[in-house]
Amino acid sequence: MSTPTSASDAEALIDNIDNKGFMFRVQGALHRFPWLSPLLVLIIAMIVFTLLNNRFLLPANLSLIMQQVSIVGAIAVAQTLIILTAGIDLSVGAIAVLASMVMAKTAFDQGVPGPLALIIGLIVGTAAGALNGFLVTRLKLPPFIVTLGTLGIFTALTLIYATGRTVQSTELAPILKVMGNVIKLGPFTVTWGVIMMILLYVIFAYVLRNTAWGKHVYAVGDDPQAASLAGIRVNRVLFSVYTVGGLILAIAGWITIGRVNAASPNVIPDANLDSITAVVIGGTSLFGGRGTLIGTFIGAVLVGVVSNGLSLAGLDQAYKILAIGILVITAVALDQWIRKVRS
Amino acid sequence: MSTVTTLQPIVQAKDLLKTFGRVVGLNHCSLELYPGEVLAVIGDNGAGKSTLIKCISGAETPDSGEILIDGKPVSFKSSIDARTAGIETVYQNLAVAPALDIASNMYLGRELRKPGFFGKVFRQLDHKGMKVKSKDEMTRLGIGTLQDMSQAVETLSGGQRQAVSVARAQLFGSKVIILDEPTAALGVRESNQVLKMIEGLRDRGLPVILISHNMPQVFQVADRIHVQRLGSRAAVISPSTYSMNDAVAIMTGALKVEEKDQVLGPVRGA
User: Fold this and answer.
1) Distance (Å, rounded) from C-alpha A197 to C-alpha A248?
2) What domains sit in chain A, N to C, each tagged with a CATH number?
3) How many helices (H) and strands (E) does chain A have?
4) How far is B33 from chain A (nearest CA, A)?
5) Interface pTM, i.e. ipTM
6) What is the pTM of this model?
7) Which residues of B touch A31 (CB under 8 A)?
8) CB contact under 8 A, B154 and A341
9) Where do the H-state alpha helices sit in A33-164?
10) Which residue of B has its CA nearest to A219?
């Protein structure tokens, strides 16, 4: 280190220190609010897409984006809870589809009344989540492997049960289709599915932030040993997270029926990875213990916005996939940097 | 000294035996902790320090022998049982969740809920109350420089983290605090902070069991030193009558101390 010999050197030195201080503050802010960076990207993306095509900001288009986001958005609520525990769930889409097929088929084939069929579907989804939880906590298998296996199992069960057939709109019990109903909110067209998804975010954001169970979810993902020494029953928390996740996924299955206006074993093939994408872009750490649902929401909307905006700009879907890929890597790199915060 | 030996130990382990397969962890080991004292437990690796402490803190269950708290026999099946009985353990690896804030760590597993409707029906946590009480506790420990209780624990220094652990331990009206190698991960200045904290605890009448490898620190704060060797208690010595070299000699078996030269009774008369 040379001592500053002139005023400009000294200024450069001070600048340098200030710069470091600025980055430090940015790091600190992101450490506290990891959803700030996706929010910033979302705002920039919306400005850019508006400049590229002024139809982007039309209420009809924004309404459409939200409807497109509703399924993966709902699934990502469950995925966030699971990733917060340092787990991962590759079977989320499969559970949602299984639950939706059970709802549709029990009502159509077995003649079960619609509301009861809905409840049976919700129970099946919850049970599927509980099975994941059981395998993760009792057999002590890594969540990645467990859910890779159950992804196959649930997908196969769905295909066998559905005998490869789609339940058409006219064959569906009315209650199963309500998530497709629309409400006019000013210029916006909102489906019940969108409202249900937002409700899931509100409820679970509250639960994560304001209840002991929420704190325990974070603690278990952050440091299971510390959590256990603090008297938290780690396995019980893990099991409950996967089980509650199953229920959320079954609700996502219900939303799917409304959005697609049919129940098919082959819908949402990309939901598993898309939900992880939303969670990661939203600033939740794959290592567990850090992240927020508001972040995931922003992440899911950001994916929807990029996809929609690039189509409106007349670009091929390949560019959407490219853009999302870059976003994911940037988000994880950012997470690594944020985790290095020390005072 | 015989006048105060009638004082009842707050924690008494009698004749503990613990084996792991063919390995003997504790071989008829005893320990007494008296009110208001700092008892250091030293010993070579494998001498059974950890096993002894784990039995007292409920992390292990002895095969035979007895543990008494305030003269009453107890049997701990988990560390939660021990905590309920008033024994708080602060673990070596600073058992705090790094990404959680100070207040959340302090109340982890024992969160406070808001009174009334929101607490009962919506199970809402009392964030503000937990922060205020955490702050008070940290100030009492002499770590008043920390203002923001919503700061993540990973942004703290090692000494501050240790303070969070200790503050948590005493927050719940515990009778005894066990500190397992509290300075092992710390620098000199921070170690001194922790030692001050231990003295502060004692001055407030809270007895402390201190497990440490660090002889100068042990001799600085301990009232009595329990030397563990080959799974049982080799001696309990006073830091004022024996030197550090003597202590090492007892640990290795080179020196035997007659019972009359030991301090098996309390040295801090209440």
Assistant:
1) 10
2) 35-49+58-336 (1.10.3470)
3) 13, 2
4) 23
5) 0.79
6) 0.85
7) 152, 155
8) yes
9) 36-52, 59-84, 92-108, 114-137, 143-162
10) B97
For residue A182, the surrounding DSSP H or E stretch is: strand A182-185
Q: Provide mean pLDDT across the span A279-283.
A: 93
A325 pLDDT higher than 60: yes
Are A31 and A341 contacting, i.e. CB atoms less than 8 angstroms apart?
yes
Tell me which of 3.40.50.300, 3.40.190.10, 3.20.20.10, 3.30.70.1150 is the CATH number of domain B1-86+175-270: 3.40.50.300
Residues of chain B with pLDDT under 50: 1-4, 270
Domain boundaries, chain B: 1-86+175-270, 96-172
pLDDT digits (tens, 9 = 90+) for A188-236: 999 999 999 999 999 999 999 999 999 999 999 999 988 988 888 999 9
Chain A contact probe: residue of B112, B154, B162, B172 with most A CBs at under 10 A: B154
> Contact A343/B157, CB-based, under 8 Å?
yes
A–B interface: beta-carbon pairs under 8 A: 82
Residue B182: how many other CB atoms lie within 10 Å: 29
Query: For residue B249, how far is the Cα from the chain centroid?
Result: 25
Q: Where are the alpha helices (DSSP H) in chain B?
A: 49-56, 79-84, 102-106, 116-121, 127-140, 158-171, 188-203, 215-221, 244-252
- Burial class from Cβ neighbours inside 10 Å (0-12, 13-18, 19+) for residue A16 reads exposed
In contact, A259 and A64? CB cutoff 8 Å: no
Chain B residues whose beta carbon lies within 8 Å of the beta carbon of residue A289: 97-100
* Structure confidence by residue, pLDDT tens digits, B10-69: 999 999 999 999 999 999 999 999 999 999 999 998 899 989 999 998 888 999 999 999
The structure tokens 């074993």 sit at: A265
Which of A30, A31, A223 to mutate to probe the B interface, most B CBs <10 Å? A223
Point out the residue among B89, B96, B123 whose CB comes nearest to the CB of A226: B96
